[in-house]
Design a protein that fits this description.
With 119 residues, this protein is an all-beta fold. The chain is built from no helices and eleven strands.
Length: 119
């Protein structure tokens, strides 16, 4: 049974920082992509940042220069350092992990952690 567990959400003031953590355990296959998504009330889930097992990263334009994604391949953990937070960053943040052995894709999701940016 694969488990994806996020932690680190909470309340921050505009301009503040938060760090999200995620651990993926129980996968029989190598996790090649890990990512963070978010979903604000009334909006669709959107991609925030991704990181490959080789360390290649990609960010949504809205968070470039403010958020940093990193991972520990040995532990299958991923971090999201969020700086210069804005009220529009308020959302539930979901951790995502993907394994793709022999071209078969397995997607794993966490339950989400709430991030609220407000004064």
């Amino acid at each position: 049974q694969v488990q994806v567990v996020e932690s680190g959400g909470g309340l921050a003031q505009p301009g503040g920082s938060l760090r999200l953590s995620c651990a993926c355990s129980g996968s029989r296959f190598n996790i090649n992509v890990m990512a963070w998504y978010r979903q604000a009330p009334g909006k669709q889930r959107e991609l925030v940042a991704t990181i490959s097992s080789g360390g290649r990263t990609d960010y949504a334009d809205s968070v470039k220069g403010r958020f940093t994604i990193s991972r520990d391949n040995a532990k299958n953990t991923v971090l999201l350092q969020m700086n210069s937070l804005k009220p529009e960053d308020t959302a539930v943040y979901f951790c995502y992990a993907r394994a793709a052995p022999l071209g078969i894709q397995y997607d794993y999701w966490g339950q989400g952690t709430q991030v609220t940016v407000s004064s």
